[in-house]
């Protein structure tokens, strides 16, 4: 490999050699969050560090993804074939595997600022090395720890007519801002190395994500070794999740802006938004059954009930697959433009998407263009499709082909000629989706790869610092961001919520980190800054632990992610709590209103004891129907059992796996306590499948012919779990 930058190689070990030649053996390696990790290069570098103890390797990253394994013997049997089917051709991240097994060598350290939820709760090394930071501060903190190598998977440009370019595709989020800072560090005398690993399976995105290949020092190009992308399987959506998503869909403003996170609650919101748009009658039946506008007036003020005629614009740190479903359904159609003045005129309705002479008159009135037109005016008008692409400014006149037109907008003849020859048809260059990173199911990646150029042009993958806050950025200043993000709805999930208005989303009160703050704080804070914007935190009202049902609306908790002074809107499956600007008493009561009824009285007593609620207050009767049975009635209100399906956007599990998954989930719940475990084992020992009803399911679990005692017990447990699915007491109550 010769030259300083843009060195191509098909040998991963040669790439490692070049990195060490450039920076030495003290390596602080920055890797993208999630999908964009260059697995071949990282594994080779990690192996080199394992082989050479003189190398000091510190990996700084977030969301290191590994295929699920399962804990118990039954879970491992269940997950084995599924994992092989989905991940069998994808190389594992070797360092992440060793982190999980607590076997990192002494010369290697891994620090992450965001975990896959719950994955490292009991991993002391990762808990110690966790870096707590807002997503928008991650670049700053990477620089602070001395990152000197950055490596990322990229999409090669040749197949997309962009030779010499690569696309940061799934992860421009931090890299776009990190590269110039590293080059500054290099210019000041500190050696650095930037590594790109090509992968043709990675979808191509242009706009901000497309950069010159020689901005990297080393490029690994080995098409024969390209591997499939790591996928996140579709998660099942419970009836409770669906109701949370339904309530959230009532708060979406037509013509507004949407941010949403990953997981079943995000999928539920997208599904209900599609129902509202495409099956409005059925959606309204559920809305009326729940009496949403009577119980929760915020919907009348800040929400909507009709189809999305103006459409929504997506601006989300994570582009979840749901945004594509919204695009396919004609909902994600509101396009924004990279000029604050133009965007403001569009927002006011002064300029429609169709171009006319009136467009020029409005632009002139607002002093965005001059008359006679100047060269910079013509360039700007062409850029936005107001003038045809072939129009040029030469010799003080507008030229298209061999025809010349005067640029005086006060001249009737010139106006006629401009209308006939020069004007475009519609505004162009609009963006319907700004995203910072993506990860999702395989069908999502396939759809991204198969998009037309026109569809792809509506999506701009970009810097997270452009998306997650309002400060000026080289891709857009505060004025532009505010103009684009009208009626912002920033929807994120929480684990718990305290009665005084604090959100618990990323950690436990004993200090252990569940996931990370990510961008949640940024979006909550931005919602309080943008006119007409709302922050929405969604959570299930209860959870199960050690065989007990616990409330996720709590009186207090020893950790918070979102402080109480940023309280805004909270949603559970039982409704909407509008907390903005409310007194503490109202905040306490509105949160109790959407808690599970099994815990409302206890919460009220604690609030009254603390002097936060009038001692004479009694729970109204219509608050006390927050029960699982009420949820079932609500999702059935439209009279169509398929309206809220467990997998609204497809699934990766087979029918057999779904059945087995339900059975195993039931067994896990039943054995959560010592007493429950003993009772379940005793019942399982008596379980039989004499009629062979479960033959194919036992075969799928590898338990058709158990040989040892452990296998025989596992077989009995599976049979018992399957039988429990059929008992009358569980009918209609098990979650998919």
From TrEMBL:
InterPro entries: AcetylCoA_hyd_C (IPR026888), AcetylCoA_hyd_C_sf (IPR038460), ActCoA_hydro (IPR046433), NagB/RpiA_transferase-like (IPR037171)
Signal peptide boundaries: none
One annotated GO biological process: acetate metabolic process
Keyword Hydrolase: yes
GO MF entries: acetate CoA-transferase activity; hydrolase activity
Domain Acetyl-CoA hydrolase/transferase C-terminal: 440-607
Alphabetical list of Gene3D superfamilies matching this protein: 4-hydroxybutyrate coenzyme like domains, Acetyl-CoA hydrolase/transferase C-terminal domain, Glutaconate Coenzyme A-transferase
Organism: Marinobacter manganoxydans MnI7-9
UniProt protein name: Acetyl-CoA hydrolase
Taxonomic path: Bacteria, Pseudomonadati, Pseudomonadota, Gammaproteobacteria, Pseudomonadales
């Amino acid at each position: 490999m010769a030259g300083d930058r843009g060195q191509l190689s098909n040998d991963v070990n040669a790439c490692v050699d070049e990195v060490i030649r450039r920076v030495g053996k003290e390596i602080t390696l920055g890797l993208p969050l999630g999908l964009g990790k260059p697995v071949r290069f990282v594994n080779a570098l990690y192996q080199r560090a394992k082989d050479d103890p003189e190398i000091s390797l510190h990996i700084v990253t977030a969301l290191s993804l590994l295929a699920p394994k399962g804990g118990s013997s039954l879970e491992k049997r269940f997950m084995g074939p599924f994992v092989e089917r989905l991940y069998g051709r994808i190389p594992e991240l070797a360092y992440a595997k060793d982190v999980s097994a607590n076997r990192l060598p002494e010369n290697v350290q891994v620090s992450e600022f965001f975990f896959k939820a719950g994955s490292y709760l009991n991993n002391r090394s990762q808990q110690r090395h966790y870096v707590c930071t807002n997503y928008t501060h991650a670049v700053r903190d990477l620089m602070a720890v001395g990152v000197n190598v950055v490596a990322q998977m990229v999409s090669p440009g040749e197949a997309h007519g962009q030779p010499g370019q690569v696309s940061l595709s799934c992860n421009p989020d931090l890299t776009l801002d990190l590269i110039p800072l590293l080059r500054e560090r290099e210019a000041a005398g500190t050696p650095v190395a930037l590594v790109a690993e090509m992968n043709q399976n990675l979808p191509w995105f242009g706009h901000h994500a497309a950069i010159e290949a020689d901005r990297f020092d080393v490029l690994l190009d080995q098409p024969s070794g390209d591997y499939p992308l790591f996928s996140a399987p579709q998660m099942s959506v419970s009836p409770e999740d669906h109701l949370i998503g339904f309530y959230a869909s009532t708060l979406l403003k037509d013509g507004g802006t949407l941010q949403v996170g990953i997981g079943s609650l995000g999928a539920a919101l997208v599904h209900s938004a599609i129902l509202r748009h495409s099956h409005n009658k059925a959606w309204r039946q559920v809305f009326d059954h729940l009496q949403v506008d009577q119980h929760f007036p915020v919907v009348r003020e800040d929400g909507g009930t009709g189809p999305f005629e103006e459409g929504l614009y997506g601006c989300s740190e994570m582009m979840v697959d749901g945004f594509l479903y919204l695009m396919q359904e004609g909902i994600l159609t509101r396009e924004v433009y990279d000029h604050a003045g133009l965007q403001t005129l569009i927002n006011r309705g002064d300029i429609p998407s169709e171009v006319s002479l009136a467009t020029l008159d409005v632009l002139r009135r607002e002093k965005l263009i001059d008359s006679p037109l100047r060269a910079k005016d013509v360039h700007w008008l062409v850029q936005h499709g107001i003038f045809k692409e072939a129009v040029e400014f030469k010799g003080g006149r507008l030229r298209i082909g061999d025809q010349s037109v005067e640029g005086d907008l006060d001249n009737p003849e010139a106006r006629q000629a401009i209308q006939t020859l020069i004007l475009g048809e519609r505004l162009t260059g609009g963006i319907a989706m700004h995203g910072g990173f993506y990860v999702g199911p395989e069908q999502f990646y396939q759809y991204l790869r198969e998009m037309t150029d026109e569809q792809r042009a509506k999506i701009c993958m970009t810097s997270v610092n452009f998306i997650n806050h309002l400060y000026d950025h080289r891709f857009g200043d505060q004025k532009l961001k505010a103009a684009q993000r009208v009626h912002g709805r920033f929807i994120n999930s929480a684990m718990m919520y305290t009665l005084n208005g604090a959100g618990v989303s990323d950690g436990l009160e004993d200090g252990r980190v569940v996931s990370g703050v990510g961008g949640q704080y940024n979006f909550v804070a931005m919602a309080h800054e943008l006119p007409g914007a709302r922050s929405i935190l969604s959570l299930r009202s209860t959870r199960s632990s050690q065989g007990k049902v616990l409330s996720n609306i709590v009186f207090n908790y020893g950790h918070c992610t979102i402080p109480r002074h940023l309280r805004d809107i909270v949603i559970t499956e039982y409704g909407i709590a509008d907390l903005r600007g409310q007194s503490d008493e109202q905040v306490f009561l509105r949160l109790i209103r959407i808690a599970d009824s099994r815990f409302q009285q206890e919460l009220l007593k604690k609030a009254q004891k603390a002097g936060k609620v009038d001692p004479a207050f009694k729970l109204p009767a219509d608050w006390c129907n927050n029960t699982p049975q009420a949820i079932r009635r609500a999702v059935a209100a439209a009279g169509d059992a398929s309206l809220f399906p467990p997998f609204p956007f497809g699934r990766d599990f087979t029918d057999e796996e779904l059945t087995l998954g339900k059975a195993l989930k039931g067994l896990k719940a039943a054995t959560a306590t010592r007493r429950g475990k003993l009772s379940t084992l005793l019942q399982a020992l008596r379980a039989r499948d004499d009629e062979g009803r479960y033959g194919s399911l036992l075969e799928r679990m590898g338990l058709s012919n158990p040989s040892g005692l452990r296998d025989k017990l596992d077989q009995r447990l599976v049979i018992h779990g399957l039988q429990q699915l059929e008992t009358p007491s569980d009918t209609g109550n098990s979650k998919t």
